[in-house]
# Entry
Amino acid sequence: MSFTKLKSVYKQRTGNTFEDTDYESFGLIDEKGNLTNAGALLADESPVRHSRLFCTRWNGLTKASGIVDALDDKEYTGSLVTLLQAGTDFVRNNSKKAWRKVGDGRIEMPDYPDRAVLEGVVNALIHRNYLEIGSEVHIDMFDDRIEIYSPGGMVSGISLEGKNLLKIPSKRRNPILADIFSRLKYMDRRGSGFKKILADYEGQVEFDETKMPVFDADNDDFTLTLYNLNYGTNYATQVNENVIENVIEISEEKMKQLMPEYSKKKLTKACEILKMISENPNISIDELRIALDVKDRTIARYISELKDKGIIERKGPDNGGKWKIK
# Structure
């Protein structure tokens, strides 16, 4: 089994190299070198067939609102790290941002706060019941909301109805997975996901009590509903998150001056990277890799060299930050 994706993300998010000794310390293998359940779920080609993610952007407010039921749908398999990134990317690609001018700048108002979406998908993948065969994690997007469904309710079996979510003690169904995702800096060891989701929503300028996230759980299922903060508003200006006003065109001739050591093939790739960053400053390294059809180490090398030459820089964290072409 290979763990290329896990190693790449670990390096990207922590700056540390995944060592051979980490296989056992992470809980991917046992002391005899045998693959653990957690290892099977995090392998590049996960052998756990029911570890899948279904994402659908429905047309309207229900699953049967019009002539065309689904506007976009994807099915993802592989490492849990791959599923997490695919799920958050799907939401981002099917969301919009509203904005309004304030003085010399503007305030961006996303349909769904990034941190809340990340926490929701992490929770669904990490705390699901993997003993339940024939059921998968689902992300269903409607005009007014997202529903993130995960097989397996609260570990304690309690219902969340009428409970103070901020006072519910954290119990982990899959502690090894939770520990690994904490090491990857995707989640907090203290289990504060509910608090972060609520805080992220309450911190948005367009938030009101009617858009409060809803957590619903019983013995068998867990569903998180995130409401579209811009649904039903009169904001006149809405733009796709993946579109910016000014696309910067950089020719191969100019790139040759900046990177004289590059071959023509590498210059072409570098220009493609800059064009994609220009069109979508939020694009992830993995999305660049997929678009260019190159390996993790190849895209990492391009990014590193472009940074070293002062051509691009990253503003903010790896997850949630933006690229800037200087």
